[in-house]
Predict the 3D structure of the following.
Amino acid sequence: MSIKVNKQLSQASTRLSQMRAPQKRLAPISKYAIYFGKFEGGLVESFEYFDGSALFNYRKVAKALNQELESLGTPFFVEDELILGMGFQARPYSIKSYFVSTTVQVIVEAIKNRTSNVVTTLHIPSMTQEDREHFIMALNKNKESKYWNKVVVVTMTDEAMSEEIDFLADMNAFKAPYWPETQSYFNVLEMSHGTHGDIKMSSQLCKTLFTANAKETKELIISKTKKLVEEKMEAVRREEASDALLKDLYGDVGQLMNQLRPDFVQEQSASLYRGNVDNMVEGLCRTINNLNLPCKGKYAAVVPELSLLFGNTGLLHFGEIYAPGLEGKEIMVIKYPKMGNHEYMVVRGITKTEYISRAAGVLTPKQFKMFKHMVETLQEGLCILPAIAEIMKLLAGLDYDGDKVGLITDEAIVKIAKETESVITVIE
């Protein structure tokens, strides 16, 4: 017996299910811009470098967060400027995208430079049946729609007509059609943040390193394992108390007691001490078996070249990256999961000053000011890759809808990685 599955139906089902991923619903969307085309740019005109990326109005995001804090009865609030330069994986409407929070001025400039710059409006309360049908046609990528290849600013209410735009996204971000009168929200899955402490090695990383230099990789793993065992044993035998964090209050009781009263655990409670040792040994075995050994570096979500919001000139070259907090460092960039042992890059993290200076004379004074502000406010947890299509293939076929990379700065690991060449894997 054979079963035929309709490809379009299967894809539609998958895309609709994506909208059901765990998320936090914040304030309703009142006004947004959708480009019924695709952001393209870089050296190759048809290169969809912004695949999966979109722009949030930072003021609207801050307002949504503060409304949520107020509804919870908290005395806290978020300053608007703190949201600038953050990344949000969010799914309003049928979007699957990663948003960079920026100013409405940048959004307007992106419309001028990254779209056809033909802008029309769709006011939902006064929309005609024809307007509705053509909007749905465009969402279905029907080029016969009167909205195709245009930017449509959708206003959900009369009051929203005088408000700033909430976000801008293109047809790479919108994954399925929907009714235009549908009310959606700031549905946030996660937001960017800095990495606390060390990141972890992995079995895939170790395979890559063994390919480059088996002897040095073996010595590296043994050295890191010994260091980790010593640190864990020292933590169990600790004599001085330390402050507990809020997250520690929801963790293991034995570990919490070992933080606050290590003397009591060791001298008065054999069961707690034995439990701490057992947990330590069990955790060590799991960590070592999976090769999840600590190493220096950060995790970051990738975002497109910021200069391409204003023109077709990329400022980063192959072998470079801009990542706040890793300026001037030699970095091994790796994305999981990956197909081959050679899918990685060794790059140099350029400085903020160097990145900004490259825009001088390339962008107009107005654009330069916006670009400089975006770079200066870009927060940790994000990194910018060069606008080169081959890099997306080199890093396990990444795109910009929330993909993350490991930015490894561990000198020993980078040294080994440089002993072999990166190889691009293309699946046709």
User: Anything to note?
Assistant: The chain is about 35% helix and 20% strand. The chain has three domains: 7-191, 199-294, 296-417. The mean pLDDT is 88. The radius of gyration is 25 Å.
